[in-house]
Amino acid sequence: MPIHNADVAAIFDRVADFLEIAAANPFRIRAYRNAARTIADLPQSVAGLVAAGEDLSRLPGIGHDLAEKIAEIVATGTLGMLDELTRELPAELTDLLQVAQLGPKRVAILYRQLGISNLAELAAAARAQQIRRLKGFGEKTENKILTELQWRHREQGRIKLIRAEQVAEPLLAYLAAVPGVTRAVAAGSYRRRRETVGDLDILVTCRPASPVMERMVAYEDVAAVLGRGDTKSTVRLRDGLQVDLRVVPDECYGAALYHFTGSKEHNVAVRKIAVQKGLKINEYGIFGGEDHGRRLAGASEEEVLGAIGLPFIEPELRENQGEIEAARSGRLPELIVADDIRGDLHVHTKATDGRASLGEMVAAARELGYEYLAITEHSRAIAVAHGLDRRRLEQQLAEIDRLAEQYPDFRILKGIEVDILADGSLDLPDTVLKKLDLTVCSVHSGFNLPAARQTERIIRAMDNPHCRIIGHPTGRLINERAPYGVDMEQIMAAARERGCFLELNANPDRLDLTDHHCRLAKEFGVKVAISTDAHSVAGLANIKYGLDQARRGWLNRDDVLNTRPVSELLHLLRR
Predict the structure, then answer these.
(1) 517 and 386 in one domain?
(2) Strand ranges in 216-266 using DSSP code E only, listed in sequence order
(3) Which member of 243, 274, 363, 511 has the lowest number of beta carbons within 10 Å of its beta carbon?
C-alpha cells in the first residue's frame, strides 16, 4: 500500500488536533504541526526517502522521534500514538475543529457536556438549539455553526487539486511504464486544473496485447474494482477517489482527450457548432458525409477543433464561459505561463512561522531563476505566528541589507504581511510601513463580520497610502472554511481607484482569488500578484497552482504584477 506525503502529514495533523483538544503542551502540538507542514511541502516522496535509508531527522522540524514515527507510518500505514489517542477520544472528534467557530476548548466542551463526537451530531444539536445553552456559545454562534455545516455538505465529494495530483502522477507513471503503453494522460477536471477534483479520467494508447488493464486493477493503491473490460476499467482507490481508465485507438486519441477533458457544458456548445455544419462529434472523432460515416478528424485536439473552424482552446478555459465565442472571433487570451513569473511577492521565514532562513529562501528563489523575492513576515497581531513588531521588523530589514550585498544581481524586497484590524487600520504604524518596498495587507480575524462591514474594513485599509496588495482577499480555505462575506466588485473598484493590487494566493489550500475573481479583476483592470505565501523552500514550487488558477481566470502576462522586471515593479508599487 503506497504512502503519500499527504497521508503522513494528515496523520501528524490529527495527532496535533487530539493533543489540542486534550490541552497538551503547546510546544508538543506545534512540533507535530510543523512536521506535517514539512512533509506536505516535500518535493520528494517521504516513503522513497525512507526506502533509500535517508536520515529524515535532517529535515526542518523533524527530530529523531518524529523521524521514527514517519518510518512507522510508511511501514504500517498508521501510527501507534494516533491509535492510542483515538482510544481515549472518539476518532471523528477532530473533524469538529474544521468548523471555523470551534477551537479545541469549545470542542472539548461540546464533547463533555453534550456528548458530541462528530459533525452529524454537531448538526443535530444545532438544529435542536442545544448548543446555544452552553456557556460561551449563544444563539449567534449556533446559527453560524449550522450555516457552515450546510456549506460543507454542499462541498463534499471533491478533493483538492494538490491531493489529486499526488495520487494521479504516480499512477500515470505506473501506467506509462506498462509494456506496450505509448501514452497515459489524465483528462477531466484534473486536466482543466480545477481547484477540486471529483474523480480521475485516464486515457491510454497502447499496442495490441498490452497488459495495461490487468496492471490497472493490480495497482497497489486500488481498494476495489468496480468494473473491468477490454477497453475500460473502473476502480476505487483507498482514499475513495474513483479512476476510470480507457484504452483508445491512436486515430481517436485527440477526440477522446477532448471529449473526456470536458467540461460537459463546453462539449455541448461545441457539439452544437458541429451539428450546424452538418457534422457529428463524439469521443471517436468528427464525422461527415451521408449518415456521418466518414471520419474527418480525431487523432489530435487541434485536428478536431480545426474541423469545425475553431483554433485550439486551452483546457483551463473549457467551461463554456465565453471561450468558444472568443475562439470564433480570434479573441482568445495568450495565457500566462511559468516563464513569465519574475519573482514571488509573499513568503515567510523562520523570523515568524516559516521553516527556512532568509538566506535559504533567497537562494531557492535564485535557483528558480527569479529576479526578486519579497520577504513578508506576519505582523505583531498574529501572536501565534510570532508576528514582528517594529523592533524585530527593523532587525530583519538590516539583515536583508547585509544579505543583499552578496547578491548584486538579485533584489530582496522588504515587505510585511500586515494585518487589517477590525476597524480597517493596519497593524503597524505608517512610520514603519513607509520604509518598506511593499505591504501585503490581509484579514486574519473577524471573519464573521457582515459583508458590508467586511467590505468597508478592507476598503478602509486600502485608503492607507502604504497598502499595496490585498492578501488572500476572501479568506477561504478550500473544503475547510467558506469565504468571508465581502463584495468583491466593490473591492476591485476601490483597488482600481487607489492603485492597489489583489493577491492570487497560490497556496493549494487557498487559491484565493478564485478563477471567477481573476476574470473579474481583469475586467476591472486591477492587476493580480500571483504569490505562494510560502513558509518553506518547497512552498515556492506552489506557484504552479497559482498559474493554473490564473489561466482558468483568463489572465495573461500583462494582467499579473510579478511578471515585471524589478524597476517596473517598484514603479507600480509606488502610490
Answers:
(1) yes
(2) 222-228, 232-237, 242-247
(3) 363
| Residues with Cβ within 8 Å of residue 307, at least 6 apart in sequence | 279, 286, 296, 297
Same domain, 28 and 127: yes
- Decide if 451 contacts 410 (C-beta within 8 A): no
The answer to whether residues 345 and 561 touch, using CB atoms and an 8 Å cutoff, is yes
1 and 77 Cβ atoms separated by less than 8 Å: yes
Q: Is 165 helix (H, G, I), strand (E, B) or coil?
A: helix
- In this structure, the chain runs to a length of 575
Count the neighbouring beta carbons within 10 Å of the beta carbon of residue 368: 15
Name the pTM for this structure: 0.82
The 10s digit of each residue's pLDDT in 75-95 is 888 899 988 888 888 878 888
What's the CA gap between 369 and 343, in Å, rounded? 8
Cell of 192: 482543466
Quote the Cα angle for 561-565-569, to 5°: 45
Say how far apart CA 356 and CA 289 lie, in whole Å: 64
**Under 8 Å CB-to-CB from 133, ≥6 apart: which residues?**
none
Residue range(s) defining the domain that contains residue 112 = 5-155
In a domain, residue 256? The reply is: no
263: cis peptide before it, omega within 30°?
yes
Query: Interior CA angle at 476 toward 471 and 480, to 5°?
Result: 145
d(CA 334, CA 484): 32
> Is residue 529 within 8 Å of 561, Cβ to Cβ?
yes
C-alpha cell at 472: 488572500
For residue 222, which of 233, 209, 208, 211 has the smallest C-alpha distance?
Answer: 233
Based on the fold, state whether residues 58 and 116 are members of the same structural domain: yes
148 pairs with which residues across the strands?
A: none
Q: Given pLDDT bands bounded at 50, 70 and 90, which one contains residue 395?
A: very high
Name 322's Cβ contacts closer than 8 Å, sequence gap at least 6: none
C-alpha cell at 63: 527530530
Give the model confidence (pLDDT) of 137-189 as tens digits: 988 888 888 887 877 665 567 899 999 999 999 999 999 999 999 999 999 99
Between CA 524 and CA 204 the distance in angstroms is 42
Amino acid at 252: C
**Cell numbers of 339, please?**
516563464
In a shared domain, residues 146 and 52: yes
Cell of 73: 507510518
CB atoms within 10 A of CB 225: 13
CA gap 384, 378 in Å, rounded = 10
What is the four-CA torsion angle of 431, 434, 439, 445, rounded to 10 degrees?
20
pLDDT digits (tens, 9 = 90+) for 346-391: 999 999 999 899 999 999 999 999 999 999 999 998 877 789 999 9
Q: Are residues 96 and 219 in the same domain?
A: no
